[in-house]
Amino acid sequence: MKMPSICQQTAACSLLALSFLMTACSDDDTSTSPVLISDLAEVHTDSEGEVARLLTDAGRVYDISHHHIQADVADTTYRVRCTYEPSTTPGQADASMPRANIYELKAVAASRPLLPKPGTTYPSDPVSLISSWVTPRYVNLHISYPTASNDAHSFGFLQDSIRTTPTGHRIAHLRLLHRRPENDADNYLVQTHLCIPTWVYAGSIDSLVLTTPTQNGGTTHHAWKL
Description:
By secondary structure, this protein is mainly beta. It has one helix at residues 14-23, and strands at residues 7-8, 37-45, 51-56, 61-63, 77-90, 98-107, 128-135, 138-147, 154-164, 170-179, 188-197, 207-213, 219-225. A hairpin with a 4-residue loop joins strand 3 (51-56) and strand 4.
């Protein structure tokens, strides 16, 4: 049976996170402690692959080009967890938007849902959903999973179907995919964030249902209105 290609939380995101963490520090000299915000957000890269703008889920846009953070792909958008200090200083690349000073930036797995393929085996190792919340472009998940190693765990989403109810509402039914390293054990729990990119549906669905695998071999179902 074939196995699908899904995002590795520690491997596929590590180069991006490492480059951010090595270069992301404030260049402002201040004698007072900064007011820091830590949240999920998006960053956009320019034609040279440098991270140019930070877009918060509340719709605020900041110029962060002064950090010269190098990403892996040019002209693209990354989902990240960011710790930053908002500023009223005009941006370096775009003076029409304020600058933000970045203190930490880590990539977050936010892969597009896969479509099922005949003959493909999809991994369903257990996770626990700690919390979730909906923002304009994502359903955000805070999860934990058991492990005993530092090897990469792979995550993704599978779109089983999109169904229309008798009242005309359209509901996307997804599965959370999770592949553990071979011979991994349940020594301790790791917490992380995953994000379902609802923007790919562009207003074509009203709700989303996610099935997640549990420790006892079963599943749980979670639903959100979009």
